[in-house]
Structure formats: C-alpha cells, structure tokens
Amino acid sequence: LRVVKFRRTGESSRSDEDVISGEHEIQIEGVQTELEPIELEDGAAVPKEFANPTDDTFMVEDAVEAIGFGKFQWKLSVVTGLAWASNYAMEMMILSILAPQLHCEWRLPSWQVALLTSVVFVGMMSSSTLWGNISDQYGRKTGLKISVLWTLYYGILSGFAPVYSWILVLRGLVGFGIGGVPQSVTLYAEFLPMKARAKCILLIEVFWAIGTVFEVLLAVLVMPTLGWRWLLILSALPLLLFAVLCFWLPESARYDVLSGNQEKAIATLKRIATENGAPMPLGKLIISRQEDRGKMRDLFTPHFRWTTLLLWFIWFSNAFSYYGLVLLTTEFFQAGDVCSISSRRKEVKAKCSLTCEYLTEEDYTDLLWTTLSEFPGVLVTLWIIDRIGRKKTMALSFFVFSFCSLLLFLCVGRNVLTVLLFIARAFISGGFQAAYVYTPEVYPTATRALGLGTCSGMARVGALITPFIAQVMLESSVYLTLVVYSGCCLLAAVASCFLPIETKGRGLQESSHREWGQEMVGRGSHSPGVTRSNSGSQE
C-alpha cells in the first residue's frame, strides 16, 4: 500500500486537539472500486465512531486534495474558459462596438444609446440570483447548460432585429442568459485543490482577455464589409461549441454529496482519479444530505451578514468601474484627449443633436491595446493574490484604478491617455477576478452558487447605471464623471479591507451549519504541516 498524506484545510469545526494531533494518514491503493457512503441527515455531525483517525473515511474535500491537479482539471479549464470567452467576454465587448454604430446608422439620441447597453445588464441583474438558485437546487451543470443555450438562441436572433425596439428586447434577453455564466466559476472551483484554486480561477481571466481581443479583431474584419448584424451572429456561434462540450462536463461532486446523490459523487471522483492517473482514498465517503439549499436567508446569518453586504458593494463597484472604463475608452479615443471631449461634444450638439462618428481604424487599434492590458492585469494579480491575500489584492486594485482616474484630470495627450487607460483596466480587471476567487471560497457549498449569483446581480446594477455616467453625464462634465468613478473605487478599497474573512489558504466550506467563532478558529489555526482528523467533520 502507498500511504498518501494530505490535510483538510481551513475546516471551521477544527478543535485545538486537531492542531496538535499531527498528520492524518489515508491509505491509498489504486482507484477504489467499492466505496460505501456514509449518509448523514441535514447538517448532522459525523458520528463518534467515524472520528477515529484510524478509520478509513473521507470527504469530497479530502478526495479532491488527494487526487490533486491533473489532466481532468486542464480539460475543465479549457471548457470553462470557452464559456468565459464566448458567452461573457465577447458579448460584453460587443456593447462598446455596437453602440456608436447604431447611434450613427439609426440616428439614436444619446439616452437611447445608453439604454441599449443598460438593457443587457438589466437582463443579467434580473437573472443572476435565479441562475444561482437553480444551480444550488438542481445542479451547477444544469443551470450552466440552460443559460448557454438561451444566450446562443437570442444572440443569433438579435442579428435579425429590424428596428430599435426589437434589438432592445432581444439584447435584454441575451443579458438574461449571460447572467448564468458566473456559475461556470462555481463548478470550476469545486473541482480544484486548494493550492491551485486561486491561480486557476485567475487564469480564466486570460480567456476573458482572449474573448475581448477576438471580438475586436472580428469587428475589424466584419464591420466594414458585412456590418453589425453579421457581427452579432458570428459572435454567438462559439457558444454552439461550448453547448456541445457541456455533455462532457460532470456535475459537481460537492453538490451531489449535499443533494444525497452519493453514487454520482463517487463515480465523478473515480472518473477524475482515473483521468489524472491518481489513486483515490480507500474507505467510506462521508455524506451529509442538506435539502434546504440555495436560500437567501442563509446569506444573512450572523456568519455571513457583513461579508454579503460588503461583497455586494465590492461587486457593484467592480462592474460599475470596469464597464464604465470600457465605454469611456471609446469616448476618449474619439475625442483625442480628455480635455477636448467636453468642447467637442458641445460643438457636435450645436451642429445637430444626432451628429455621430463611426469608429475609425485607429479607434479599433487603441481599443485593442487597452483590451490587451487585461493580460498583464492577470499576471500582477496572480503574483500577489497568494502573497498578500484576497482582501488586500482587491483593495490594491481599486486604489490603483482610482489613482489613474484622478490622473486623467491632467490634459494628457493620446499616448499618455492610452497608457493610463491601460494601467487602470489592468488593475480593475484583476480586482474583478480576485472577487471571483474570493466569493466561491467564502460561502459554503449549500449557498455558494446563490452567493456568487447575488454578487453577480449587484455587479449588473453597477453595469446598468454606468452607461448613464460614462455616456450621458460625460456630456455635461468629464471631470465630474471621473470623480464619480474614482470615489466609488476608493470606497470599494475600504470595503475590501473590512471584509471579516480572509480565505487565503482555506479549503472550500461544505456546510452552512457552523458557528462564527469556530470559523475564526479554523481560519486562524491553519498552518503548514498541520492536518485535522475526521472529528466533527461535515459533508
């Protein structure tokens, strides 16, 4: 027999005895074929007979840590990244390209142009909590598949919209589908061992950057010849590939355990072990069925009340600032520099309220450069997130964005403007991705999808409001617009510092039936080389 040592990281019910008990050894022999699950009722503690470290029992967290990162996770990274690039990044990048085009082609006033962007976020905002609830109740894979097929269908239909009212409704329905895409991160995170989790979720941002760059390049090729309708249709087609790959995706073993499907959980874990060429723990899988999942009240228990409220504001600020910067980029580039944008808009308004300018080749080139800034943004966040922690990473990202926004008050030329926008976008996109790392880590399995869904919904509130700041308020005062974005991010930096829980070095929590004091003990007593036994564990 090979003896594999692993530790259960950050479980909140860990006692002082666990800290000095040494390492817990689990015997491994090939891939286990006959595993007998131990089923517990709602949130019940593990019986004492299973608390003895010599008994061969394990939880999903233990199996994921023991199997480790391998071929299965690489495949899952590509599939999740494809969803991120095609269903999220490309559809979002369309907004900054489509708005000026329809403004010119259909002679739309500025408020209708802003509404065209906002309606997508209305759809996302209204559906994010719903998709989270579906994912907690019926499975992560189920919610993700439905949302992708929904987005594909209405994304293609929006290319055939004859008038403004039609495209407004259809893009709103596309936004409704996009609201379910963050659940791909929930599914992804639940298959990742602790040491790889932050890095892997951050690397999903690379796929976001690939998707946005691909969308800009597609626009350069398609817009001058085929027009915006073909751009919408072709942008939706990559979703078809993801829809096919969804059949390969397994359901989360953590979800299966919580819903009482122990056989599916064991089969999934054996599949991962086989693909990775790694052994599975020899023994009995501990099961804790919890029927009461995905309830909003669980986000406001004493354990999570402040975490939830602060995260909602952080996600709001992230989306408000990120999408605001995307929209401001096209506005600034069309004006040439910040100082001339107000006078330029006054001149345009004096000539005709419907006068417009199409995006030029130079605008597309600069748009591409600022989009490429997301790559170094990922690398910086990747380097610091496991060094200084999730909270400080988010705070630093907000602060740098705020500082760059204030520097735009100076009458800088186009080159300096591009550099400042490059840095600001790099850090705000990195901060956004840090929030995607932190949120699934801080909530337990029973409410993880709902927690991420509600945070995503609050982000869409920010994204819904931001067009009226970046496009409408900008007409009145460019400086007031910059103050709004800078001030919002400064407050978000403070909120990040006040988050009660730091999830760095902590395993994913399985049960919501925990005491706040125990959570703090489990977090504070984690140290290298210390592992805990099965005593008091829940799955």
TrEMBL record:
Family indicated by similarity = Belongs to the major facilitator superfamily.
Q: Which residues form the Major facilitator superfamily (MFS) profile domain?
A: 77-504
PROSITE patterns documented for this protein: MFS, SUGAR_TRANSPORT_1
Q: Where is this region: Disordered?
A: 510-539
Output this protein's name: Synaptic vesicle 2-related protein
| CDD domains tied to this protein | MFS_SVOP
Q: Which domain of life is it from?
A: Eukaryota
TM ranges: 76-99, 111-134, 146-167, 201-222, 228-249, 303-323, 393-410, 416-438, 450-470, 482-501
Topology class, membrane: Multi-pass membrane protein
Its gene name is Svop_0
Which keywords fit this entry according to its UniProt record?
A: Cytoplasmic vesicle, Membrane, Synapse, Transmembrane, Transmembrane helix, Transport
Q: Name one Pfam family in it.
A: MFS_1
Which InterPro entries does this chain map to? MFS, MFS_dom, MFS_sugar_transport-like, MFS_trans_sf, Sugar_transporter_CS, SVOP-like_MFS_dom
**Could you tell me where the Polar residues compositional bias lies?**
528-539
Q: Which organism is it from?
A: Sagittarius serpentarius (Secretary bird)
Q: What are its GO cellular component terms?
A: synaptic vesicle membrane
